[in-house]
Protein backbone atom coordinates (compact mmCIF):
# COMPACT_ATOMS: atom_id res chain seq x y z
CA UNK A 1 0.00 0.00 0.00
CA UNK A 2 1.40 3.37 -0.97
CA UNK A 3 -0.92 5.93 0.51
CA UNK A 4 -0.74 9.29 -1.15
CA UNK A 5 -2.79 12.18 0.11
CA UNK A 6 -5.31 12.12 -2.72
CA UNK A 7 -7.05 15.30 -1.80
CA UNK A 8 -10.58 14.30 -2.60
CA UNK A 9 -10.22 10.89 -0.92
CA UNK A 10 -8.53 12.09 2.23
CA UNK A 11 -10.56 9.76 4.42
CA UNK A 12 -9.04 6.74 2.74
CA UNK A 13 -5.61 8.38 2.83
CA UNK A 14 -5.40 8.74 6.58
CA UNK A 15 -7.06 5.41 7.29
CA UNK A 16 -4.65 3.79 4.83
CA UNK A 17 -1.72 5.49 6.54
CA UNK A 18 -2.91 4.29 9.94
CA UNK A 19 -3.25 0.71 8.66
CA UNK A 20 0.16 0.85 7.07
CA UNK A 21 1.77 2.01 10.30
CA UNK A 22 -0.15 -0.53 12.39
CA UNK A 23 0.84 -3.35 10.05
CA UNK A 24 4.36 -2.42 9.02
CA UNK A 25 5.41 0.43 11.25
CA UNK A 26 6.74 3.82 10.24
CA UNK A 27 10.39 4.10 9.23
CA UNK A 28 10.65 7.08 11.58
CA UNK A 29 9.20 7.37 15.09
CA UNK A 30 5.66 8.68 14.96
CA UNK A 31 5.95 11.05 17.92
CA UNK A 32 8.02 14.18 17.44
CA UNK A 33 9.83 13.71 20.69
CA UNK A 34 10.98 10.20 19.75
CA UNK A 35 11.79 11.44 16.25
CA UNK A 36 14.08 14.14 17.65
CA UNK A 37 15.78 11.52 19.83
CA UNK A 38 16.33 9.33 16.73
CA UNK A 39 17.86 12.29 14.90
CA UNK A 40 20.18 12.90 17.83
CA UNK A 41 21.46 9.32 17.51
CA UNK A 42 21.99 9.73 13.76
CA UNK A 43 23.83 13.08 13.86
CA UNK A 44 27.13 14.38 15.15
CA UNK A 45 26.68 16.42 18.35
CA UNK A 46 27.46 19.55 16.30
CA UNK A 47 24.88 18.92 13.59
CA UNK A 48 22.26 17.99 16.17
CA UNK A 49 22.95 21.17 18.17
CA UNK A 50 22.63 23.26 15.02
CA UNK A 51 19.32 21.65 14.10
CA UNK A 52 17.63 21.47 17.47
CA UNK A 53 19.13 24.51 19.18
CA UNK A 54 17.99 28.10 19.30
CA UNK A 55 19.15 31.54 20.36
CA UNK A 56 20.29 32.38 23.89
CA UNK A 57 18.60 30.48 26.68
CA UNK A 58 16.11 29.03 24.16
CA UNK A 59 13.21 30.67 25.99
CA UNK A 60 11.46 31.56 22.75
CA UNK A 61 12.01 28.11 21.35
CA UNK A 62 10.18 26.67 24.37
CA UNK A 63 7.55 29.43 24.29
CA UNK A 64 6.70 28.49 20.70
CA UNK A 65 5.61 25.04 21.87
CA UNK A 66 3.94 26.20 25.08
CA UNK A 67 1.80 28.77 23.25
CA UNK A 68 -0.07 25.97 21.50
CA UNK A 69 -0.85 24.28 24.83
CA UNK A 70 -2.71 27.36 26.04
CA UNK A 71 -5.40 26.94 23.40
CA UNK A 72 -7.90 24.09 23.49
CA UNK A 73 -10.13 22.87 20.70
CA UNK A 74 -13.85 22.58 21.39
CA UNK A 75 -14.83 19.93 18.83
CA UNK A 76 -18.22 19.96 17.15
CA UNK A 77 -19.81 16.54 16.63
CA UNK A 78 -22.26 14.96 14.21
CA UNK A 79 -21.16 16.88 11.17
CA UNK A 80 -20.78 15.21 7.80
CA UNK A 81 -17.04 14.55 7.47
CA UNK A 82 -17.24 12.04 4.64
CA UNK A 83 -16.02 14.41 1.95
CA UNK A 84 -13.13 15.98 3.83
CA UNK A 85 -11.03 18.09 1.50
CA UNK A 86 -8.08 20.16 2.73
CA UNK A 87 -7.07 21.66 -0.58
CA UNK A 88 -5.77 25.15 -0.02
CA UNK A 89 -5.23 27.65 -2.83
CA UNK A 90 -2.21 29.81 -2.06
CA UNK A 91 -0.52 32.34 -4.34
CA UNK A 92 -1.32 30.45 -7.50
CA UNK A 93 -0.59 26.97 -6.10
CA UNK A 94 -3.20 24.53 -4.85
CA UNK A 95 -1.78 22.73 -1.82
CA UNK A 96 -3.18 19.28 -0.92
CA UNK A 97 -3.40 20.52 2.68
CA UNK A 98 -2.51 23.83 4.38
CA UNK A 99 1.13 22.81 4.82
CA UNK A 100 4.49 23.71 3.28
CA UNK A 101 8.02 22.70 4.23
CA UNK A 102 9.84 25.54 5.99
CA UNK A 103 13.15 26.60 4.52
CA UNK A 104 15.95 24.85 6.38
CA UNK A 105 19.46 25.49 5.13
CA UNK A 106 22.61 23.40 5.29
CA UNK A 107 20.81 20.06 4.92
CA UNK A 108 24.10 18.44 3.89
CA UNK A 109 25.04 18.24 7.56
CA UNK A 110 21.92 16.16 8.25
CA UNK A 111 22.10 13.65 5.41
CA UNK A 112 24.31 12.93 2.40
CA UNK A 113 21.39 13.46 0.00
CA UNK A 114 20.66 16.82 1.62
CA UNK A 115 17.95 18.94 -0.06
CA UNK A 116 17.55 16.43 -2.89
CA UNK A 117 16.05 13.94 -0.43
CA UNK A 118 13.70 16.56 0.98
CA UNK A 119 12.74 17.72 -2.50
CA UNK A 120 11.84 14.22 -3.70
CA UNK A 121 9.84 13.52 -0.55
CA UNK A 122 7.95 16.80 -0.81
CA UNK A 123 7.29 16.24 -4.51
CA UNK A 124 5.92 12.75 -3.83
CA UNK A 125 3.08 14.24 -1.78
CA UNK A 126 3.00 17.58 -3.64
CA UNK A 127 3.55 19.60 -0.49
CA UNK A 128 5.56 22.66 -1.57
CA UNK A 129 9.15 22.77 -0.44
CA UNK A 130 10.63 26.17 0.35
CA UNK A 131 14.27 25.86 -0.62
CA UNK A 132 16.75 27.87 1.44
CA UNK A 133 19.27 30.22 -0.15
CA UNK A 134 21.76 28.54 2.17
CA UNK A 135 21.11 25.09 0.75
CA UNK A 136 23.74 22.40 0.32
CA UNK A 137 22.60 21.77 -3.28
CA UNK A 138 22.12 24.35 -6.04
CA UNK A 139 18.54 25.48 -6.62
CA UNK A 140 18.57 24.18 -10.22
CA UNK A 141 19.47 20.65 -9.08
CA UNK A 142 16.71 20.71 -6.49
CA UNK A 143 14.25 21.93 -9.12
CA UNK A 144 15.25 19.04 -11.41
CA UNK A 145 14.57 16.58 -8.58
CA UNK A 146 11.05 17.97 -8.23
CA UNK A 147 9.92 17.94 -11.88
CA UNK A 148 6.61 19.84 -11.95
CA UNK A 149 5.98 19.67 -8.18
CA UNK A 150 5.38 22.99 -6.41
CA UNK A 151 8.35 24.80 -4.87
CA UNK A 152 9.15 28.23 -3.47
CA UNK A 153 12.53 29.87 -2.99
CA UNK A 154 13.68 31.41 0.29
CA UNK A 155 15.80 34.45 -0.31
CA UNK A 156 18.63 35.57 1.93
CA UNK A 157 19.27 39.07 0.71
CA UNK A 158 22.99 39.18 0.01
CA UNK A 159 24.87 42.37 0.79
CA UNK A 160 26.16 42.04 -2.79
CA UNK A 161 23.16 43.41 -4.72
CA UNK A 162 24.15 41.77 -7.99
CA UNK A 163 24.36 38.36 -6.33
CA UNK A 164 20.94 39.03 -4.79
CA UNK A 165 19.48 39.90 -8.20
CA UNK A 166 21.12 36.85 -9.75
CA UNK A 167 19.48 34.55 -7.15
CA UNK A 168 16.05 36.02 -7.93
CA UNK A 169 16.49 35.46 -11.66
CA UNK A 170 17.74 31.91 -11.20
CA UNK A 171 14.84 30.97 -8.92
CA UNK A 172 12.29 32.25 -11.42
CA UNK A 173 13.93 30.45 -14.33
CA UNK A 174 14.08 27.18 -12.35
CA UNK A 175 10.34 27.14 -11.75
CA UNK A 176 10.07 28.34 -8.16
CA UNK A 177 6.72 30.06 -7.90
CA UNK A 178 7.16 32.46 -4.96
CA UNK A 179 10.00 34.25 -3.21
CA UNK A 180 10.11 34.04 0.58
CA UNK A 181 12.21 36.92 1.87
CA UNK A 182 13.48 36.19 5.35
CA UNK A 183 13.60 39.50 7.21
CA UNK A 184 14.47 38.33 10.72
CA UNK A 185 18.01 37.29 9.91
CA UNK A 186 20.05 40.23 8.61
CA UNK A 187 22.70 39.13 11.12
CA UNK A 188 23.07 35.79 12.86
CA UNK A 189 22.04 35.59 16.50
CA UNK A 190 23.89 34.43 19.61
CA UNK A 191 23.42 30.66 19.68
CA UNK A 192 24.77 29.19 22.87
CA UNK A 193 24.74 25.51 21.86
CA UNK A 194 26.70 26.19 18.68
CA UNK A 195 29.10 28.55 20.42
CA UNK A 196 29.61 26.01 23.21
CA UNK A 197 30.70 23.46 20.60
CA UNK A 198 32.63 26.07 18.60
CA UNK A 199 30.62 25.03 15.56
CA UNK A 200 28.95 27.04 12.84
CA UNK A 201 28.22 25.39 9.50
CA UNK A 202 28.39 28.82 7.86
CA UNK A 203 31.97 29.36 8.99
CA UNK A 204 32.85 25.85 7.83
CA UNK A 205 31.60 26.69 4.35
CA UNK A 206 28.43 24.57 4.47
CA UNK A 207 25.30 25.87 2.73
CA UNK A 208 27.20 27.59 -0.08
CA UNK A 209 25.93 25.61 -3.05
CA UNK A 210 23.83 28.43 -4.48
CA UNK A 211 26.75 30.82 -4.14
CA UNK A 212 29.44 28.55 -5.57
CA UNK A 213 27.19 27.88 -8.57
CA UNK A 214 26.35 31.53 -9.09
CA UNK A 215 28.14 33.28 -11.97
CA UNK A 216 28.06 36.67 -10.24
CA UNK A 217 29.38 35.31 -6.95
CA UNK A 218 32.11 33.46 -8.82
CA UNK A 219 33.05 36.59 -10.74
CA UNK A 220 33.99 38.17 -7.40
CA UNK A 221 36.73 35.62 -6.77
CA UNK A 222 40.27 35.85 -8.11
CA UNK A 223 40.42 32.05 -8.56
CA UNK A 224 37.64 29.46 -8.95
CA UNK A 225 36.47 28.10 -5.58
CA UNK A 226 37.36 24.56 -6.76
CA UNK A 227 41.00 25.67 -6.71
CA UNK A 228 40.92 27.87 -3.63
CA UNK A 229 37.91 27.63 -1.33
CA UNK A 230 39.17 29.93 1.46
CA UNK A 231 38.45 33.29 -0.22
CA UNK A 232 35.05 31.97 -1.33
CA UNK A 233 34.11 31.09 2.25
CA UNK A 234 35.31 34.50 3.44
CA UNK A 235 33.29 36.28 0.74
CA UNK A 236 30.23 34.17 1.60
CA UNK A 237 30.47 34.96 5.32
CA UNK A 238 30.98 38.67 4.60
CA UNK A 239 28.07 39.07 2.19
CA UNK A 240 25.61 36.42 3.37
CA UNK A 241 23.41 38.85 5.29
CA UNK A 242 22.76 42.54 4.86
CA UNK A 243 22.55 44.51 8.10
CA UNK A 244 21.75 47.74 6.24
CA UNK A 245 18.38 46.61 4.84
CA UNK A 246 15.28 48.75 5.47
CA UNK A 247 11.70 48.92 4.21
CA UNK A 248 12.92 51.32 1.54
CA UNK A 249 14.83 48.49 -0.11
CA UNK A 250 11.77 46.36 -0.90
CA UNK A 251 11.20 47.86 -4.39
CA UNK A 252 14.48 46.18 -5.40
CA UNK A 253 12.67 42.85 -5.15
CA UNK A 254 9.87 43.95 -7.45
CA UNK A 255 12.38 45.19 -9.98
CA UNK A 256 14.05 41.79 -10.09
CA UNK A 257 11.19 39.31 -9.91
CA UNK A 258 7.65 38.91 -11.15
CA UNK A 259 6.98 36.20 -8.58
CA UNK A 260 4.81 36.75 -5.50
CA UNK A 261 6.84 38.12 -2.59
CA UNK A 262 6.27 36.75 0.91
CA UNK A 263 7.99 38.27 3.95
CA UNK A 264 9.06 35.72 6.57
CA UNK A 265 9.71 36.73 10.15
CA UNK A 266 6.90 39.19 10.91
CA UNK A 267 5.83 39.33 14.58
CA UNK A 268 4.14 42.74 14.90
CA UNK A 269 0.93 44.22 13.53
CA UNK A 270 2.65 47.51 12.65
CA UNK A 271 5.29 45.68 10.60
CA UNK A 272 2.50 43.73 8.91
CA UNK A 273 0.86 47.04 8.00
CA UNK A 274 4.13 48.35 6.54
CA UNK A 275 4.50 45.17 4.52
CA UNK A 276 1.01 45.63 3.10
CA UNK A 277 1.84 49.24 2.22
CA UNK A 278 4.92 47.94 0.42
CA UNK A 279 2.68 45.69 -1.66
CA UNK A 280 3.92 42.27 -0.56
CA UNK A 281 1.82 39.26 -1.49
CA UNK A 282 1.99 37.32 1.76
CA UNK A 283 3.43 37.20 5.27
CA UNK A 284 4.87 34.48 7.45
CA UNK A 285 4.50 34.99 11.16
CA UNK A 286 7.67 33.40 12.47
CA UNK A 287 10.45 33.86 14.99
CA UNK A 288 12.71 31.53 13.02
CA UNK A 289 11.99 28.68 15.42
CA UNK A 290 13.38 30.66 18.36
CA UNK A 291 16.74 30.90 16.60
CA UNK A 292 17.08 34.68 16.33
CA UNK A 293 15.73 36.84 19.20
CA UNK A 294 15.68 34.89 22.44
CA UNK A 295 12.86 36.36 24.51
CA UNK A 296 10.81 37.15 21.41
CA UNK A 297 7.09 36.53 21.52
CA UNK A 298 5.92 33.03 20.59
CA UNK A 299 4.85 32.89 16.97
CA UNK A 300 1.35 31.68 17.78
CA UNK A 301 0.88 34.54 20.26
CA UNK A 302 1.86 37.06 17.59
CA UNK A 303 -0.52 35.60 15.01
CA UNK A 304 -3.93 37.00 16.06
CA UNK A 305 -2.77 40.63 16.04
CA UNK A 306 -1.04 40.27 12.69
CA UNK A 307 -4.00 38.45 11.15
CA UNK A 308 -6.39 41.08 12.46
CA UNK A 309 -4.35 43.91 10.92
CA UNK A 310 -3.99 42.10 7.60
CA UNK A 311 -7.73 41.34 7.57
CA UNK A 312 -7.53 38.85 4.72
CA UNK A 313 -5.84 41.18 2.23
CA UNK A 314 -2.93 38.76 1.77
CA UNK A 315 -2.37 35.23 3.10
CA UNK A 316 -0.76 34.99 6.53
CA UNK A 317 1.22 31.82 7.18
CA UNK A 318 2.73 30.66 10.46
CA UNK A 319 5.71 28.64 11.57
CA UNK A 320 7.70 28.01 14.76
CA UNK A 321 6.39 25.18 16.88
CA UNK A 322 4.23 23.24 14.43
CA UNK A 323 4.59 19.61 15.47
CA UNK A 324 1.19 17.95 15.05
CA UNK A 325 -2.16 18.27 13.33
CA UNK A 326 -3.68 20.02 16.34
CA UNK A 327 -1.04 22.77 16.10
CA UNK A 328 -1.99 23.40 12.49
CA UNK A 329 -5.66 23.49 13.44
CA UNK A 330 -5.04 26.10 16.15
CA UNK A 331 -2.94 28.24 13.81
CA UNK A 332 -5.65 28.20 11.15
CA UNK A 333 -8.31 28.97 13.73
CA UNK A 334 -6.29 32.01 14.82
CA UNK A 335 -6.03 33.37 11.30
CA UNK A 336 -3.31 31.52 9.40
CA UNK A 337 -3.97 30.33 5.85
CA UNK A 338 -1.36 27.59 6.12
CA UNK A 339 1.54 26.47 8.29
CA UNK A 340 5.18 25.62 7.69
CA UNK A 341 6.55 22.38 9.08
CA UNK A 342 10.18 22.88 10.13
CA UNK A 343 12.42 20.84 12.43
CA UNK A 344 10.31 17.64 12.33
CA UNK A 345 11.03 16.97 8.67
CA UNK A 346 14.72 17.70 9.18
CA UNK A 347 14.73 15.17 12.04
CA UNK A 348 13.16 12.74 9.57
CA UNK A 349 15.88 13.55 7.04
CA UNK A 350 18.58 12.90 9.62
CA UNK A 351 16.96 9.64 10.70
CA UNK A 352 16.15 8.10 7.31
CA UNK A 353 16.83 10.40 4.34
CA UNK A 354 14.15 10.81 1.67
CA UNK A 355 11.93 8.08 3.10
CA UNK A 356 12.24 9.67 6.53
CA UNK A 357 11.03 13.04 5.26
CA UNK A 358 8.24 11.37 3.31
CA UNK A 359 6.98 9.42 6.29
CA UNK A 360 7.16 12.43 8.61
CA UNK A 361 5.01 14.23 6.06
CA UNK A 362 2.56 11.35 5.64
CA UNK A 363 2.20 11.02 9.41
CA UNK A 364 1.68 14.77 9.78
CA UNK A 365 -0.90 14.89 6.97
CA UNK A 366 -2.79 11.90 8.38
CA UNK A 367 -2.84 13.46 11.86
CA UNK A 368 -4.00 16.76 10.32
CA UNK A 369 -6.81 15.06 8.41
CA UNK A 370 -8.05 13.18 11.45
CA UNK A 371 -7.70 16.05 13.92
CA UNK A 372 -9.37 18.62 11.67
CA UNK A 373 -12.15 16.16 10.90
CA UNK A 374 -12.71 15.06 14.48
CA UNK A 375 -12.81 18.72 15.52
CA UNK A 376 -15.84 19.03 13.25
CA UNK A 377 -14.48 20.48 10.02
CA UNK A 378 -14.54 19.13 6.49
CA UNK A 379 -12.55 21.90 4.79
CA UNK A 380 -10.08 24.58 5.80
CA UNK A 381 -12.71 27.27 5.26
CA UNK A 382 -14.68 25.78 8.15
CA UNK A 383 -11.82 26.22 10.65
CA UNK A 384 -12.61 29.36 12.63
CA UNK A 385 -11.72 31.03 15.91
CA UNK A 386 -14.99 29.75 17.26
CA UNK A 387 -13.45 26.28 17.73
CA UNK A 388 -10.89 27.48 20.26
CA UNK A 389 -10.98 28.25 23.95
CA UNK A 390 -8.05 29.90 25.72
CA UNK A 391 -7.06 28.04 28.84
C1 LIG B 1 15.97 27.25 9.88
N1 LIG B 1 15.18 28.29 9.42
C2 LIG B 1 15.52 28.97 8.28
N2 LIG B 1 14.73 29.97 7.81
C3 LIG B 1 15.03 30.60 6.67
O1 LIG B 1 14.29 31.50 6.27
N3 LIG B 1 16.14 30.25 5.95
C4 LIG B 1 16.99 29.26 6.35
O2 LIG B 1 17.95 28.96 5.70
C5 LIG B 1 16.68 28.61 7.58
N4 LIG B 1 17.52 27.65 8.04
C6 LIG B 1 17.16 26.94 9.19
C7 LIG B 1 17.99 25.91 9.63
C8 LIG B 1 17.61 25.16 10.72
C9 LIG B 1 18.48 24.03 11.17
C10 LIG B 1 16.38 25.43 11.39
C11 LIG B 1 15.91 24.58 12.54
C12 LIG B 1 15.59 26.47 10.96
C13 LIG B 1 13.90 28.61 10.12
C14 LIG B 1 12.76 27.77 9.57
O3 LIG B 1 12.41 28.18 8.28
C15 LIG B 1 11.50 27.90 10.46
O4 LIG B 1 11.20 29.26 10.65
C16 LIG B 1 11.70 27.22 11.80
O5 LIG B 1 12.31 25.96 11.62
C17 LIG B 1 10.37 27.07 12.53
O6 LIG B 1 10.55 26.54 13.81
P1 LIG B 1 10.26 24.99 14.16
O7 LIG B 1 8.80 24.74 13.98
O8 LIG B 1 11.09 24.19 13.23
O9 LIG B 1 10.71 24.83 15.57
Residue share in helices?
Answer: 40-55%
The ordered string of helix (H) and strand (E) elements is HHHHEEEEHEHEHEHHHHHEHEHEHEHE
Overall mean pLDDT score?
Answer: 96
The total count of helices amounts to: 16
Bound molecules: ligand FNR
The biggest sheet, with number of strands, parallel, antiparallel or mixed sense and barrel status, is:
8 strands, parallel
Q: Kindly provide the radius of gyration, computed on alpha-carbon positions and rounded to a whole number of angstroms.
A: 20 Å
Please indicate the percent range of residues in DSSP E strands (runs of 2 or more): 5-15%
Low-confidence stretches: 1-10
Side by side, the strands of the main sheet go 4-11-10-9-8-7-6-5
Shape: globular
Count of extended strands: 12
Helix and strand content put the structural class at alpha/beta
C-alpha termini separation: 41 Å
Descriptive labels:
391 residues, alpha/beta, 8-stranded parallel β-sheet, two-stranded antiparallel ribbon, 12 strands, 44% helix, disordered N terminus, binds ligand FNR
Amino acid sequence: MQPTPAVDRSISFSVARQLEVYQRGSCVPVSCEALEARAREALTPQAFAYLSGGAGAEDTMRANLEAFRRWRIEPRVLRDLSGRDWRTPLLGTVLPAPVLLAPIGMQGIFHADAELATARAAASVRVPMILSSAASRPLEQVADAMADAPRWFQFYWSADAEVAASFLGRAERAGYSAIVVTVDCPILSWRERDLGLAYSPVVFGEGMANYLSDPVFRSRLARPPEEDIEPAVRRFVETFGNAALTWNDLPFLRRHTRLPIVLKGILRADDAARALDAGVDGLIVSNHGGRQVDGAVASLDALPRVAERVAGRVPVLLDSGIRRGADAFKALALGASAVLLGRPYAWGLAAAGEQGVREVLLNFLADLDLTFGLSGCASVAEVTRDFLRRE
